[in-house]
Write a structure and sequence with these properties.
Number of helices: 6
Shape: globular
Order of helices and strands: EEHEEEHEEHEEEHEHEHEE
Radius of gyration: 19 Å
Distance between the termini: 17 Å
Helix content: 10-25%
Length: about 280
Amino acid sequence: MDFAFLTDWHQFLPREAGHVVAFAGGGGKTSLMLACGAQYRAEDVPVILTTTTRSEPVSAWPVVQWRELVAAAAREGGEDDPDGGPETAAPAGRLPSWCYLCDGTHADGKWRGLEPEQVDRLASLAPDHVVLVEADGAAGQPVKLHRPDEPRWPGRTSLAVLVVGIGALAEPVGQVVHRWDELPPGPLVGVAADASWDWQQFHALLMEPGGYLDRVPRSVPVALALTQLGDLDDGIGLFDFVARVMAEPRLPLVLFCELDPERRNLRTAYRATENIGPGDAG
């Protein structure tokens, strides 16, 4: 499979207001979402970060509470219900041009995420913003098994970014898979807990029935992000794997990511037969 690299790693991200970019998987979703958010900020594109699960507090981003947002919209729209209908529009200047939106705090200090339907309402409550949303959690593990109700995609998701932590490579399967002991093995059926994680297991997790790609609505464009690449010493295996996954028509883009602040590096490869422009991942 022939592929080339975009001039700028972020070229595929949509800049038009109203887009919802959702991140799912493991191995650095929050860090990648923050990197994308920083790029929007650098270009003065209004952007909201949020989650449909729970999140560790994110520093350096102004925090807006969901009820504050809808209550302000209700007051301005003359509605009695602070959770007023989605037709209530946000007045210019109410929201910061960039912020993290959550729905309160859990007892353990983590931020409470929005329901997918609440994210969808941002089309009217924050019509000038692009929305970036974490659609699942992985408890810090590089890969995960999903419950039947995951990921929690907003209905308006316009791009899904599937995140895979290459740090799982050569580690015992049972130690790198979130919920390994809780859920049926799904795409990893037949794999033993003490097996060493390899490229074939990455491929199965991504491509087999019940795997990551299978959980993205068919109408939603998809990009794959491979994170934790700083210590990888198997470049041949990596590029063989990328060639295999890019043979899948739904995966025209692969991000190569090292998100550690001290050695941060991001590049985006695209299938050479594609014509990828800004905001075009399909």
